[in-house]
Amino acid sequence: MYKHILIPTDGSQVASDAIPRAIALAKVLGAKVTGITVTVPSEVFADATRALADAEKYLGEVRDAASAAGLSCRVIRAEHEQPYQAIIEAAKKNGCDLIAMASHGRRGVSALVLGSETVKVLTHCTVPVLVYR
Known about the structure:
By secondary structure, this protein is of the alpha/beta class. The protein has 6 helices and 5 strands. Strands 3-2-1-4-5 form a 5-stranded parallel beta sheet, sandwiched between helices.
């Protein structure tokens, strides 16, 4: 069925909760796994060291879960003003045939202002998207 699953994460609790579920699906399907986190360029310039450390931590969650399941995992740290676009571009560029992601990440006012990246991926992507609540 699916051969290559892209797992986006932003370090939020719901994204972290979705990672083992996506990894379990990949294991059952025998699929490859790629993890991605997207930093907004303005955040990178404001505190590049922290952004890089946070991204590595988030991607480490995907890498560690894949390793524990006996799966190899590639990880991507992307910079883009629109995280949903980076996720879609990564799926296409890496030949992913499924994106498995959490239902939402940001909370509070930032979620209302920015909107859900998951909704944007669902709206603009031609690759199937599995959403974990």
